Amino acid sequence: MLSSISATCKICHHAINRQVYICIFAEKCVMEKRDLRIVFMGTPDFAVESLRALVEKGYCVAGVVTTPDKPVGRHGNILRASPVKEYALSKGLPVLQPEKLKDETFLSALRALKADLQVVVAFRMLPEVVWDMPRYGTFNLHGSLLPQYRGAAPINWAIIHGEKETGVTTFFLTHEIDTGRIISQRRLPITETDNAGIVHDKLMVMGAALALETVDLLIAHEGCVETIPQEKLYHDLSELRPAPKLSNEMCRINWQQPAKAIYDFIRGLSPYPAAWTTFEMPDGTSQTLKIYESEIVSHTHSLQTGTVISDLKTSVDIAVADGYIRLISVQLSGKKRLHIKDFLNGIKNLPERIIELLPRVNP
């Protein structure tokens, strides 16, 4: 037993068990962790969970950096704070909202917080002058198993590609986005019925736990922890799947794809930003329809792709090459989201077909 104790804790200077890297005087370390000054950076709800965990577990959050308030409303005369700002203010935490991250006024205010460590969750790309400021560095929590799905929308793209597993990663920031040395990861299975919203919420909780675990690891080793270069996890860049920000046009359904690919595409974009298509109405007009939930119906047919089949009461099926996509939850432009039964109850003229995505071929 004594042979495994051969180092000292950098925080309380007592012995560490090397087999588990935990100080045998852990209770004292829990008290000392409050002296480590953390600056948290983030914006959406996904980031709030990690910030809340740090605050509620007694870590010293010296300040919070988030995006400026955004104008909302018809005339843009109402300013809305980010979810991270709202939570930070509710806990009396100092908040910085820089327009530009290299602005000297912001940098001076950030230095004044005297951070030992910066924790980033769903924020902007940071310049070196920011991420290199604390003595323990800056780590980011990312919603994928890096190096796969680097970018702004990792959860959506993992589901769109039909992945069976995803996860969260903590890594030290460097010059290129999402490419830093990996500190730790946790894995999450993706079920066949999970959509982006479900996976988002699961990873949000899992990510908060991993963020705390990473902070504890850095405290226990004074920032000197073993990391894995991402380059060791792949042979060629062609093996990696990116996760770029989703534009509206990227969310348009291509009905020429197999049923499984369309099904994954719909759930990968649900509930936000939502997959969409365009219906051709009997009077020749078109309407945009968002599709939030669907099912695969595996039946052979000889119908043209995009043909709409319905009993006008409970079901709407869209013909695709290898079966049908059955619509479960939809939303017409300018209307609210509805279950398909309610949608059918409220629509006067059912569309005859989907407007084709591919250019028409002239005869």
Describe the structure.
Strand 15 (308-310) and strand 16 form a beta hairpin. The protein has a seven-stranded mixed sheet with strand order 8-5-4-9-10-11-12. Strands 13, 14, 15, 16, 17, 18 and 19 form a seven-stranded antiparallel sheet that branches. Helix 2 packs parallel to helix 3 and helix 2 packs parallel to helix 7. The chain has 363 residues and is α+β, with helices and mostly antiparallel strands. The protein is 25% helix and 26% strand. It has helices at 26-32, 45-56, 83-90, 104-112, 128-131, 154-160, 196-220, 259-268, 340-346; strands spanning 5-8, 15-17, 22-23, 37-42, 60-65, 70-72, 78-80, 95-96, 117-121, 138-142, 165-172, 182-189, 275-280, 286-297, 308-310, 316-320, 323-332, 338-339, 353-354. It contains nine helices and 19 strands. It has three domains: 1-34, no CATH class; 35-239, Formyl transferase, N-terminal domain (Rossmann fold, 3-Layer(aba) Sandwich); 249-354, Formyl transferase, C-terminal domain (Methionyl-tRNA Fmet Formyltransferase, Chain A, domain 2). Residues 1-31 and 357-363 have low confidence and may be disordered.
CATH fold name of the largest domain, please? Rossmann fold
Uncertain segments are 1-31, 357-363
Total individual domains: 3
CATH architecture of the largest domain: 3-Layer(aba) Sandwich
What top-tier CATH class of the largest domain fits best? Alpha Beta
Specify the CATH homologous superfamily of the largest domain: Formyl transferase, N-terminal domain
The end-to-end span amounts to 83 Å
Let me know the largest β-sheet. Answer: 7 strands, mixed
Shape: elongated
Helix proportion range: 10-25%
Gyration radius, rounded: 25 Å
Total of helices: 9
